[in-house]
Amino acid sequence: MRVKINLSGKNIVLPISYQYYLQGLFYNLVTKKFDYLHDEGIIVDSKTMKPFSYSKIFCKRYEVKDNSIYFGDEIWIYFSSPFEILLEEFLEKLTELNNIRIGNNFLNISSIRRLRYTFDNYALVKTLSPILVYEKVLRVNGERKLLRYNPKDPEFCEIIKYNMSTKGKALGINTETFNIIPQRINPTNKRVLKYKTTTFEAWEGTYKIYGNNEVLKLAFDWGLGLRNSQGFGMIETI
């Protein structure tokens, strides 16, 4: 399930790496009922996973200046989760508020729209937030090294498919039919973002994804790649 939230305020300004504020908004509204989500998440194959994602912030026109983004007076954001009860709790708490705070901005809720999708066996998609793919390898000296992958690396798609299978296990969904093929990716699609003190390289762009309706819905609701709950991997049909 996915929702689109339109917000309005005066001279909305956020730092370039603002994803932490959106994650905090979601946690603040749902953790009273779902306290395990923040502290533990869902454990699958010894991996901790948080079952939600969100887009970058959209607006009609913006300006980047002094490590900040000036969005104007109107923005919209997408949130999604494969667990409808989680997103419904988020919406219920959201509608109880007169306004919400994102960073130093107090914003009015202009509209909330629920979005649902059905698929055949294929979708051409674009990113609403960049896809993050990496792996940690153990060196001989015992240190861990972070290997970053881009869409031209075969590991990029393989890690996304493996990650999808792990998400599928959490919901009892067989993801063997899933596949992803990058389309028209170039260096301008690269995004360097900081989450708290960690810097990530992630990729926007266009992709073809394959799978049955259940599998593609999982990709849309949870997101593609890693760290979806930190603002990575949300997609939309073209």
Automatic annotation (TrEMBL):
Listed Pfam families: Cas6_I-A (PF21350), Cas_Cas6_C (PF01881)
GO molecular function, one term: hydrolase activity, acting on ester bonds
Protein name: CRISPR-associated endoribonuclease
Leader sequence segment: none
Domain called CRISPR associated protein Cas6 C-terminal: residue spans: 121-236
Site annotation Transition state stabilizer: residues: 50
Domain of life, source organism: Bacteria
Family according to the record: Belongs to the CRISPR-associated protein Cas6/Cse3/CasE family.
Keywords: Antiviral defense, RNA-binding
CDD domains assigned to the protein according to its UniProt record, in alphabetical order: Cas6_I-like (cd21140)
GO biological process, one term: defense response to virus
